[in-house]
Specification:
961 residues; mainly beta; 14-stranded parallel beta sheet; 5 helices; 74 strands
Length: 961
């Protein structure tokens, strides 16, 4: 049998549904057929007949969350906010309004409000309470928020309206609960419990005896007193501020035993009602104990060095560790199983995971778990000196080393240093499972809900062959606090299946001296969606400097070295970085309009060197501007691709590239240098065209050591720039900059020192072209204007294997000693090549392109004499050996990529035509020692000319062997 209240409400809902079905209304609404009597006593709102109801999705529900549009449908669920289930209350969906007639007989309305858990972390609404038409309560709640108490005075009131409004983004997922809603019509006000939480600088899960801690107490009477008790004993008093919030600092009793401890606050709440609230905490003990683990030991031990634990399972059975303790794994051993140690350290006394003994780093093999090492909701842990793997035949979300903060607390003191993480079989395809890809990496710090971390240090790790990426600090963008003290430095990522470094939700993170090479490749390669080299998201004033990203494979649109992503506050700064040969080029502008809307964030790109990375991609809306100055773009094989929109200022940059226009809309250009075919935008002031006279442009390899990008003495770019305010104070090479107001104009480009005298340089320092690519990244490099390259695999089939010796004309050398994807060829353009050695034969290995197959070189000897010689190399496609040259290898096929940047599999072609490498000899007079060679004149840009892949001297005269 239905109660009278329920029957009345159901009748009103049924009448509303009939009106909607008849086309009279579109939002379920109901008005009571007769005025319900005012409530008496203390009653739940769901037991009181409402006077009217409207709801944004089907009917409002009694004691259940909002379901579907039908009356009493099966989609309803128990009212649940942030994991707490409420037996009573109202389930609504914005926009919603429920009103009650009070008859002037009620005193108080109480409730807990929030987005229902059925909506996960989505939804955003405004809860509002009106008493006789006057607003008495208003609060915004999001899907990530916990329940918020409501305590409103109803004295003498005739009407009560409970309203929920949708936000400006619409009402999707706006299931809004008035949980535990009560109308108090008794003679006395009811007490509402106080809320307690740790202050921003206090972790209540790591209280240390004898040290101070601070608790915030909410929902007190304004300026009312409050007392705090620890395990039942009073430890402090305080007074609330005008908003009813008290900050209470106390000292944890010096003799407090370790374990759980209840904190209780007692005080005066609204309406002068005595009230209290409680919160759990954890007291930690300090210890310097060491626990030893040797998984090769034949039997379980007690954790001492003489009798170590012999398995992950035995270690887990120990229970929580105390602050200051160490867990040490024997070097050279391997432990299988997911390591999930418990316990929390404190500042100055971290819990340490590391190694003992001599030998290789001990291995922790997660064997396909979510993470090989997983530490949850704990502070002050250090993980160092370990070898971590997490293999599986089935990709899914996986991590090597994982720190998680799954609650609302602020944890602290995470240190991950000196580890080697590899073979992590995480998720590879961002297009099919974005969350799985985003939460897969070698090393990850992940916060959920509203948690954050104060102090994240990730340094000196090697990460390779990990799906999803290298190092990630990850969080939903709805978190309320930034991570702080974030420092990621000197990590080496290579062959990871996605992003090298991703930084979410952090205030002033500093990312420096890291490298990310061959991204998207390796044992667990990228398979779909997008990735980029290093990038921040939803962060404040991030700084990326002195990093290297190179040879990234293609993705749908990104694959850039650098990316400033959405929801950045302040300035996004990329400076003093080096990138080369990335499939997506230099930079992705995703700071807005990639799903995050307009932004006022500023982006500064300065003093970077980009080698064969001449693409700007993405779009911006809003007032945020890009300041792009004093960068050096050197791209001999790829034209400049500029598909980045948004306001920009572009000054003092070097552009060496075969062509490609720069966008003129919303842009200011001045004092840039152009060479190779690219031209200044119309109207640019102070531009310089012609050879910039770099020492050895294009010679960068895999590190920040790129001296070839300094300016030679006599360069037209010396002092040709325009002053930039607040220019950082130093250049890529750490020379001081001119700065604003200086009487000396700055140079154009990333180098701000004086002109450098041109002297002979070794072969490796002059390489300026990438001629060989492999199947892992066939898009890198080019030897012709239509982007053809030799195939490493095809050359190996023909007898030339990278890193292996080869011989010609009696001289032995090493074929392609550099990593594939980096410059491997010296395109002759009059350079001075330093070479030392004595022999009868100067061997030059390479090929020619276009119509130029020879030129005059000058050999300089240590005795001061010179010899002019003809340097000839047959054509790579159809050349034939001569009296002074021989065929070194002829591959059956080569490669061509039809797009300069990005592009799917269809843009990489196997060309089933031969490609040849030749060796030519130059005779050297007996007993002469070569000092250097001045190469034939020509263009250093890709296409026609002599392409030298190796130079060696051999065949010593008799008696000098």
């Amino acid at each position: 049998m239905k109660t009278p209240t329920l029957a009345r409400n159901l009748a009103a809902i049924a009448a509303s549904a009939a009106m909607v079905a008849a086309g009279v209304g579109t939002v379920p609404a109901a008005v009571a057929a007769e005025t319900p009597p005012p409530p008496t006593g203390v009653v739940y709102a769901s037991d009181v007949p409402w006077a009217s109801m409207s709801n944004g999705w089907g009917p409002a529900e009694l004691d259940m969350s909002n379901g579907g549009q039908a009356l009493g449908d099966a989609n309803r669920r128990p009212l649940t906010i942030d994991g707490t289930v409420y037996a009573k209350g109202l389930g609504t969906h914005a926009p919603s309004s429920i009103s009650y007639k009070l008859g002037g007989q009620c005193r108080q309305f109480l409730a807990q409000v929030g987005i229902d858990d059925t909506q996960a972390d989505r939804g955003r609404v405004d809860f509002r309470v009106f008493v006789d038409g006057a607003e008495r309560f208003a609060a915004e709640r999001k899907g990530i928020d916990g329940a918020l108490p409501v305590n409103v005075d109803l004295a003498g009131a005739s009407t009560l309206e409970l309203r929920v409004d949708a936000g400006p983004e619409g009402n999707g997922n706006d299931h809004a609960d008035w949980a535990d809603a009560k109308i108090n019509c008794s003679s006395e006000y009811l007490a509402a419990p106080l809320r307690l939480e740790g202050s921003a600088g206090t972790n209540l899960n790591s209280l240390v005896p004898g040290t101070p801690a601070t608790v915030v107490v909410r929902d007190l009477k304004p300026l009312g007193p409050v007392s705090l008790a620890f395990r039942g004993e009073k430890v402090a008093d305080a007074v609330a501020d005008a908003g009813g919030v008290a900050t209470v600092t106390f000292v944890v009793p010096a003799g407090a035993a370790g374990g759980t401890a209840e904190l209780t606050a007692s005080g005066t709440g609204p309406f002068d009602v005595a009230t209290s609230g409680a919160l759990g905490s954890l007291v930690v003990q300090l210890s310097d104990a060491k626990f030893y683990v040797d998984c090769s030991a034949p039997s379980p031990g007690d954790g001492s060095q003489a009798s170590p634990f012999n398995s992950i399972a035995q270690l887990d059975g120990h229970g929580a560790f105390n602050a200051g303790e160490s867990i040490l794994f024997r070097a050279g051993t391997s432990c299988t199983g997911a390591l999930k140690p418990a316990g929390t350290g404190v500042a100055g006394h971290p819990i340490t995971l590391s190694s003992y003994g001599e030998g290789a780093k001990p291995t922790i093999n997660g064997n396909g778990a979510v993470a090989a090492i997983q530490i949850t909701n704990a502070s002050h842990w250090t993980v160092s000196g370990l070898h971590v793997v997490n293999p599986s035949d089935t990709p899914t979300r996986r991590v090597g080393i994982l720190f998680e903060n799954s609650g609302t607390a602020q944890t602290a003191g995470i240190v991950v240093t000196g580890n080697h993480v590899e073979d992590v079989a995480g998720w590879r395809n961002k297009a099919t499972n974005g969350a799985g890809f985003a939460q897969s990496a070698g090393i990850m710090v992940r916060t959920w809900g509203k948690g954050s971390v104060d102090g994240i240090t990730i340094t000196d790790n090697e990460v390779n062959d990990t799906a999803g990426g290298g190092v990630k600090i990850s969080a939903p963008d709805t978190t309320e606090r930034y991570n702080t003290g974030v420092y990621v430095a000197r990590n080496k990522m290579h062959e990871v299946g996605g992003d090298a470094i991703v930084i979410h939700n952090s205030d002033a993170p500093l990312i420096e001296y890291n490298s990310g090479l061959n991204l998207g490749q390796g044992a667990h390669p990228y398979e779909g969606g997008n990735f980029a080299g290093m990038w921040p998201y939803n962060s404040k004033n991030p700084v990326f400097q002195f990093n290297v990203v190179g040879n990234s494979t293609t993705s749908v649109y990104d694959s850039t070295a650098w990316d400033c992503d959405m929801k950045i506050v302040g300035t996004c700064l990329f400076q003093y970085n080096y990138s080369y040969g990335n499939a997506g080029g230099f930079y992705l502008n995703c700071v807005s309009n990639c799903g995050g809307g307009s932004t006022a964030a500023k982006v500064v790109l300065r003093y970077n060197v980009a080698q064969d990375d001449c693409r700007l991609g993405g779009a911006s809306t809003g007032p945020g501007k890009h300041y792009i100055y004093n960068n050096t773009f050197y791209c001999p094989s790829r034209g400049f691709l500029d598909d980045m929109t948004g306001p920009r200022e572009v000054r003092n940059n070097i552009f060496v590239t075969p062509g490609g226009p720069l966008r003129a809309a919303s842009a200011v250009y001045s004092n840039n240098a152009y060479f190779g075919g690219i031209l200044p935008p119309a109207g640019e002031l102070g531009s310089v065209t012609g050879d910039p006279k770099l020492i050895a442009g294009g010679s960068g390899q895999t590190t920040l050591d790129v001296p070839g990008y300094k300016l030679a003495a006599g360069s037209p770019l010396l002092g040709a720039g325009t002053a930039i305010a607040d220019d950082g104070g130093k250049d890529f090479f750490e020379n001081p900059t001119a700065g604003a107001g200086s009487v000396t104009a700055p140079n154009i480009g990333a180098y701000q020192g004086p002109g450098v005298d041109v002297t002979p340089l070794p072969f490796a320092a002059l390489l300026n072209q990438t001629s060989v690519a492999n199947a892992a990244n066939p898009r890198n490099g080019a030897i012709t204007a239509d982007r053809r390259t030799f195939s490493e695999e095809a050359l190996a089939d023909a007898g030339l294997t990278s890193g292996k010796p080869y011989s010609a004309f009696g001289v032995t050398s090493v074929w392609h000693p550099n990593p594939v994807g980096t410059p491997d060829t010296l395109k002759a353009a009059g350079q001075q090549l330093a070479i030392s050695g004595q022999g009868r034969t100067l061997l030059v290995t390479g090929f020619s392109t276009g119509a130029v197959s020879s030129g005059v070189a000058t050999v300089h000897f240590t005795n001061g004499m010179t010899k002019k010689v003809t340097l000839a190399l047959p054509n790579w496609k159809d050349g034939v050996p001569t009296d002074t040259s021989m065929l070194l290898a002829r591959s059956a096929y080569h490669q061509r990529h039809t797009q300069a940047y990005i592009g799917g599999a269809s843009t990489v072609l196997r060309i089933d035509e031969q490609a040849s490498v030749f060796a030519t000899k130059i005779d050297i007079p007996a007993a002469f020692k070569v000092a250097s060679i001045t190469l034939p004149a020509g263009s250093a840009l890709v296409d026609e000319g002599l392409n030298i892949m190796d130079v060696a001297i051999g065949n010593l005269p008799v008696g000098l062997e």
